[in-house]
Amino acid sequence: MRKARISRKTAETEISVEIDLDGSGAYDNQTGVGFFDHMLDQLARHALIDMKVRAAGDLHIDDHHTVEDTGIALGQALREAMGDKRGIRRYGECHLPMDEAQVRCALDLSGRAFLVWNVEFPTPKIGTFDTELVREFFTALAGNGGITLHVDRLHGFNSHHIAEAAFKAVARALRDALEVDPRKADAIPSTKGAL
User: Fold this and answer.
1) CB under 8 Å to 43, separation ≥6 — which residues?
2) What pLDDT was estimated at residue 1?
3) Pairwise CA distance, residues 133 & 66, whole Å
4) Please, where are the H alpha helices in 25-184?
5) How far apart are CA 75 and CA 175, in angstroms?
6) Residue 29: exposed, middle, or buried by beta-carbon count in 10 A (0-12, 13-18, 19+)?
7) What is the pLDDT of residues 115-127, one digit of tens each?
8) N or C terminus of the chain: which is more exposed, having fewer CB within 10 Å?
């Protein structure tokens, strides 16, 4: 049962996240930030993680706290749902094309949080969404999920395509890393015996 439910409440946001790592990619995400909801939907669909997110944040200020705190809660949920990580493949990678954009992701569900981010956006906004918040989300996700995460933009001049390619690339890499390895379904994927 690789499922988790996380609730996080601060003076700035109130977030709840429910995930099932063995789902079909079903999603129901409502954060009050339309473009971000669209990206979370992509993450769920392409990782095959069932995901329900509810967020109420201080959007009268800006989207920052809502996006970052959702990343924190989702990272915590991933960590909890993975348990001791027995049987997972652990590593995942993807080169994701979307029209003129291509984003590469490589990740390790190592328990050691680290983000390498080489993604530049040609515009500061996608609609009303600040493009710098894409990095903020993945920083929070990696930090709280214990994920070593590398994301690189190889091509692209449309900010929407670049952002969406980033979310989808991470999703596909997560999908591979979270899969149970039938050859080692009862083993921790480390010579240390723990992750």
Assistant:
1) 49, 51, 167, 168, 170, 171, 174
2) 87
3) 10
4) 34-47, 64-82, 132-145, 159-178
5) 15
6) buried
7) 999 999 999 999 9
8) N
Interatomic CA distance for residues 6 and 56, integer angstroms: 14
Closest CA to 59 of 107, 124, 13: 13
CB atoms within 10 A of CB 54: 16
- Give the C-alpha distances (Å, rounded to integers) separating 76 from 3, 97, 167: 12, 29, 18
Structure tokens at 165: 């390619």
Q: What is the pTM of this model?
A: 0.97
Tallying the residues shown for the chain, one arrives at 195
Residue written as token pair 């993975």: 82
Hey, what are 53's tokens? 């997110």
- Tokens representing 191 are 């010579």
- Spatial separation of the C-alpha atoms in residues 195 and 60, rounded to whole Å: 40
9 phi, psi to nearest 5 deg: -130, 125
